[in-house]
Input
Amino acid sequence: MVIPNGLLLTVGYTVGAIGGWTAITIWCVGALVAFAQNMLFAETAAMFPGMSGGISRYATEGWKRYFAPLGAVASYGYWIGWSFSIAVNGAAIGHLITAQWFPHAPSLPFPGHRIGLPEALAVLSIAGGWACNYFGARLAAGVSKAVAALVMLGLTVVVVAPFLHPGSWHASRLTWYHGGSWMTLIVWFYVTAWTTYGTEICASFAPEYRDTARDTAKALRLTSLISLGVFFVVPLATVGSVGEATLRADPVGAFATAFTRALGGFSDLGVVILIVSMFFGMVSCTADGGRALYGLAREGMTVRQLDKVNRWGVPGRALTLDALVNAAIVVLLGEPLSILIASNFGYLVAMTLAVAGFLLLRKDRPDWPRPIRRARAWIPVAWVLLVFNVVIVSVGVTHPSLAGYGGATESFLAVGILLISVVLYAYRRVVQDGERIAWRIESPRVPEETREPEETREPEETREPEETRVSEAGGPAPQSPNSATARPTIRSNRS
Output
């Protein structure tokens, strides 16, 4: 449900900039790329069934033999990608409420933009998402269930209604991009990447599925295919019913406009559904972002003060810091799409390192148990995906202004936050833990539980039959930990 929510946030901006058919093509191609990447991540998830953290952990496992700090980069980048979605949704809520009910609210000048009621409402929304999570997971789960039903109802109305009323939908309202700049299209791939790639989050829950290998693969496959359908149907119905010019004029309220057009009124209801949908996204992303910071602290990748849970069993300190960072981002950037551009850099860096991690794990750990093993044809596919992502990241972070809403500020902020995260990693390792930073960490070729410890092995040519050994006192030798009967049972690859 969070992934279609990302589509509702970006549909107006994308269609207004490059046309309806081009936007739909970008979303669908991105969903197909996500499907291929999810096929790779299903294999890596099954390799490490007890490892939480999703794709950033697979990147860590693949890269630690070559340059271990890249694991911290992937982990922080992944956190930034999901966490900053809180600020994106909060900023959108602030703009929607102001435009719908307080269009003449005053604002004050601020470096780069103006701040006023939209930013204040955004901060209040962030505080609400924080509160829903801080006081226990049960409250957040209850809010999410109720909101999800409302969002599904709104999506259904927007998609179905235009086709039930003859003459209300026209294909002629969708156009192709005629700007002539291929780099602009790449930048829009970069902007929409979190939305189209986001189904990989299923890998984060791999240890919690009943059958890690089977259920993780199923979740990754089905969610990406469902998203592919949503990315085609929702913008097709929306643009065909309201037109590109309307979306261009009000990109944040595109869904509310389509909802109003579908029902012939009820504009307030459409805005309320959109606001509730975005708040639902904030609750989910707050839960993910806070727990990601908590997990980083537990793994020794950020300051240990975040490795705490409150009386309700949730990482309260991490949730609070996450909310404060997002509130600061809203004040600094203001525009939802600008925040999304800033957050996508870290997310795509993590995604690129994870795809490369698949290739490195195939090379370095050929004997590692793989309950899911993709055919060799997937190796060149992984190389193509890797090159594709590198191009998207390189062009997107250096040319964000081609999207019309980004610039040097967004790029510097994206890179700067990632670098600050690495500094915190170094501070934790060197200052708080008193350890040296390990630049390279050797990895075993097979899991510990599938191989016999070296200290328990005895060379075959010197091994004596147990019954012929005697102690120095002349009696039978005592049973030792090195004996065959004392050796632990070795779990087979199949088990």
Summary: The chain has one domain: 2-432. Residues 454-495 have pLDDT under 50 and may be disordered. The two ends are 35 Å apart (CA to CA).
